[in-house]
User: Which sequence fits this backbone?
């Protein structure tokens, strides 16, 4: 599991996750996700290259989303694959963190 | 289900991750169990719609040992009802080891049916005359749940009987307090026989899935257990199934489960899944080391914990919102 960040216009941070967000994947990104949640208020998590999302991985998304929200900010999820979208829906996490498929819509939600 | 190849991959990955963990010791207090191959490690999952995923030594047979206890408790509840059964055994976690010789102050019942004392009290209830018919009734019920013929390991049975003096002492203590009747040898033969049934991970996963599936075997469709008591059995497994590790297990895994001293663990995801893991090296509390690691990771990965934030309470409530 790899994690990279990009600064976008309007003070938005794009977090790009790449790989399987399983138990090991979650362990690999949790520290950085926590740091990002403590530093930024507008975060777009790009899930395009996440091939699998498990229960531990859901925690790795919900925890920073809640931290950012408590700091008055917002986090959105962007472009999950079919499998990942299904997990977000079945678990109800799509009602906790907004999911976007169009980049413009995702950015607009964060502005 | 489109995610099933994912589950196969997860199970295989967990098998590979923990197969080389070498902590713990094979049980020796029943001499015959000491002959187990410490390298063996098998995992099997069975869903309530009859699908099965497995890895490693899932076909290897071993004795069911204490994993017989929930099924015997279920049979006693069905035959005698809840009130009568609970006159002979409590439902409180003892926090003691599997072979605890303590009884509940006041009632003098064993604390629960998952420790030896409680299971012996249950064996006293479900034994039948002639002696072999009670054993046969028990084995037949396990066969219905497993979906195949099972047999008793006579060498392990003889080994249990020859060395089971602590269990004999527990039984006589319960006889003293009127918890079991005077046919102590018959009761112990029933108990030792129950523990000596040979199973593999596939059998155990199917038995667990049968419990998960309201008591019906997911493959044959046969109604094996009365669903009205399944909830009671799962509750006692949740609070007492791993002896003095039960609290830690509830925290880390959060599923009703039962371990056996031969190295097996079964866990149940209600209405969804039966899990079986086998690896004979045990920790100091008598539970399979690799088995616990595998169950922890399965629960984390698949969100199986009863109180995982993704698991919503009552479906009935949803209809009332």
Assistant:
């Amino acid at each position: 599991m790899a994690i990279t960040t990009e600064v976008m216009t309007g003070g938005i941070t794009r977090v790009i996750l790449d790989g399987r967000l399983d138990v090991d994947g979650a362990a690999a990104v949790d520290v950085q996700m926590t740091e990002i949640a403590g530093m930024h208020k507008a975060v777009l998590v790009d899930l395009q290259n996440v091939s699998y999302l498990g229960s531990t991985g859901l925690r790795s998304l919900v925890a920073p989303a809640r931290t950012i929200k408590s700091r008055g900010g917002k986090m959105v999820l962007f472009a999950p694959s079919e499998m990942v979208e299904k997990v977000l829906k079945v678990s109800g996490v799509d009602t906790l963190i907004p999911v976007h498929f169009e980049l413009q819509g995702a950015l607009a939600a964060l502005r | 289900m489109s995610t099933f190849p994912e589950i196969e991959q997860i199970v295989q990955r967990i098998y590979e991750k923990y197969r080389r963990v070498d902590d713990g010791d094979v049980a020796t207090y029943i001499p015959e169990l000491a002959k187990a191959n410490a390298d063996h490690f098998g995992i099997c999952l069975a869903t309530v719609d009859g699908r099965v995923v497995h890895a490693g030594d899932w076909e290897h047979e071993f004795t069911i040992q204490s994993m017989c206890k929930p099924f015997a408790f279920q049979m006693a509840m069905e035959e005698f009802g809840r009130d009568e059964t609970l006159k002979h055994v409590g439902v409180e976690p003892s926090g003691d080891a599997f072979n605890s010789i303590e009884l509940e102050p006041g009632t003098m019942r064993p604390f629960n049916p998952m420790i030896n004392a409680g299971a012996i009290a249950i064996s006293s209830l479900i034994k039948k005359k002639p002696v072999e018919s009670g054993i046969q009734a028990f084995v037949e019920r396990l066969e219905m749940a497993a979906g195949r013929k099972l047999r008793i390991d006579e060498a392990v049975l003889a080994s249990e009987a020859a060395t089971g003096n602590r269990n004999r002492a527990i039984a006589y203590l319960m006889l003293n307090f009127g918890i079991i009747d005077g046919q102590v040898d018959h009761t112990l033969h029933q108990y030792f026989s129950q523990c000596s049934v040979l199973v593999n991970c596939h059998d155990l996963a199917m038995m667990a899935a049968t419990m998960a599936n309201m008591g019906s075997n997911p493959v044959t469709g046969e109604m094996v257990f009365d669903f009205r008591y399944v909830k009671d059995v799962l509750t006692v497994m949740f609070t007492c199934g791993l002896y003095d590790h039960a609290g830690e297990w509830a925290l880390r895994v959060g599923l009703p489960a039962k371990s056996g001293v031969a190295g097996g663990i079964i866990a149940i995801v209600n209405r969804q899944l039966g899990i079986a893991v086998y690896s004979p090296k045990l920790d100091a509390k008598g539970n399979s080391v690799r088995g616990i690691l595998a169950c922890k990771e399965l629960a984390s990965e698949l969100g199986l914990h009863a109180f995982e934030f993704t698991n919503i309470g009552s479906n009935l409530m949803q209809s009332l919102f």
About this structure: The mean pLDDT of chain A is 97. Chain A touches chain B through 14 residues (CB under 8 Å). Helices of chain A lie at 23-39, 55-70, 82-90, 103-110.
